[in-house]
Design goal:
Radius of gyration: 21 Å
CATH class of the largest domain: Alpha Beta
Number of strands: 14
Largest sheet: 7 strands, mixed
CATH architecture of the largest domain: 3-Layer(aba) Sandwich
Bound molecules: pyridoxal-5'-phosphate
Order of helices and strands: HHEHEHEHEHEEEEEHHHEEEHEHHEH
Structural class: alpha/beta
CATH superfamily of the largest domain: Type I PLP-dependent aspartate aminotransferase-like (Major domain)
Mean pLDDT: 97
CATH topology of the largest domain: Aspartate Aminotransferase, domain 2
Strand order of the largest sheet: 1-9-8-5-4-2-3
Low-confidence stretches: none
Helix content: 25-40%
Shape: globular
Length: 376
């Protein structure tokens, strides 16, 4: 077995294998659809929401949330600049305009004051991201949303099990989406879930995700042109087993972070993920932001880790800086405005955070980092 340390990967037990095998062998005829239904029910219970809709990805969930809220051309949606492009791309799918707001220095999530400054008469929704398992200040974001009549679409892709004021990530927006990509805390290989307490939005999403068939339609009479977004049953079976292990999987993430925190506690100039007092961070990716004085920008640090057999990833680039947004007016404004995103991103690196990472591997990463920085 390679002694290379991977950046991410799931925890799969006999339970996942048994469920997937049963779905593949028996999930047809009278049992067709059983695993997606069971996965949705147990996931909704776990998050504490009324409805959960299993999907092929989180990206499709964000697309459905936006389309379900009738957001389209002429509308603006505010996203944090520092996130994965999947948070913003669906805004473009529905023809609306992406507005990039800055992040908070400590949580690395959407900053409420920056959101306030981005609001115009065209703003329809705020799309906060629970970055790397951390959460933004939802009290402040909800106050702004209420004041301006905006919806909150929570991108909880990276935050399964995280909490704000005792409420789980996914229950903090009007609608929220999760990712079960192979790198995530729960996996189904590829997959996603949309969750909401809103009956009307749920009904709309169910129609949009099934080629515009009204719920209960058995005559195959589509009433509009829409999408086809469903999770395959074998994937849902793996997801069901992962929810059953929710406490264990989330505890594992927190334990890994704690190992890193202890191992790097005495290294000056490194800031790891933050956990404000009223929140629970599930540390999807343990992330280190280095003091620029150390003179180790993320790209250079990744090359050095790679030479030592350690995989890493760059902290997200501000999405307004990506070539994908060249020539877009909102991106040009954001490049000048979002000082915190642009200041932190060059110095941030995701450290190995796989579900099966061992204590010894974390010690190796920490020792390697010290050596690279010239501290040992
Ligand atoms: C913040 C964020 N949003 C959305 C997504 C998209 O998830 P998926 O790949 O399941 O579409 C991801 C996945 O990497 C993500 O990290």
């Amino acid at each position: 077995m390679s002694d290379r340390i991977p950046i991410a990967g799931p925890s799969i037990t006999q339970r996942e294998i048994d469920c997937a095998t049963d779905a593949a062998a028996n999930g047809w005829y009278e049992r067709a659809g059983e695993y997606p239904r069971r996965f949705e029910k147990s996931f909704a219970e776990y998050i504490g929401v009324k409805h959960a809709v299993s999907l092929p990805s989180c990206t499709s969930g964000l697309h459905l949330a936006l389309a379900g809220l009738s957001i389209g051309p002429g509308d603006e949606v505010i996203v944090p600049d520092l996130t994965w492009i999947a948070s913003a791309a669906p805004i473009t799918y529905v023809g609306a305009t992406v507005v990039f707001a800055d992040i908070d220095e400590c949580t690395w999530c959407l900053d409420a004051e920056s959101v306030r400054a981005c609001i115009t008469e065209n703003t329809k929704a705020i799309l906060p991201v629970d970055l790397y398992g951390g959460v933004p200040d939802y009290t402040a974001l909800r106050a702004i949303a209420d004041e301006h009549g905006l919806k909150i679409i929570e991108d909880a892709a990276e935050a399964i099990g995280s909490e704000f004021d005792g409420r789980k990530a996914g229950s903090l927006g009007d609608v929220a989406t999760f990712s079960f990509h192979g790198s995530k805390t729960f996996t189904t290989g590829e997959g996603g879930m949309l969750v909401t307490d809103d009956d009307e939005l749920h009904a709309r999403v169910m129609q949009l995700r099934d080629h515009g068939r009204e719920p209960g339609d058995i005559q195959f009479k589509n009433t509009e042109v829409a999408f086809k977004y469903k999770m395959p049953p074998v994937a849902a079976a793996i997801g069901l087993a992962q929810v059953e292990r929710a406490e264990e999987l989330v505890a594992r993430k927190r334990e890994t972070f704690e190992w890193y925190r202890e191992a790097l506690a005495d290294v000056e100039g490194i800031t790891l993920n933050h956990e404000p007092a009223n929140t629970k961070n599930t540390f999807w990716m343990v992330t280190a932001v280095l003091d620029p004085m150390l003179e180790w920008p993320k790209e250079k640090l990744m090359v050095a880790f790679d030479a030592e057999g350690i995989d890493s990833r760059p902290m997200f680039h501000p999405i307004s800086s990506l070539p994908a947004y060249d020539g877009q007016a909102e991106a040009a404004v954001a490049r000048k405005r979002n000082a915190v995103s642009y200041r932190l991103s060059p110095w941030g690196i995701n450290l190995p955070s796989a579900m099966n990472l061992t204590y010894e591997q974390v010690q190796r990463v920490a020792e390697t980092l010290r050596r690279i920085l010239g501290l040992s």
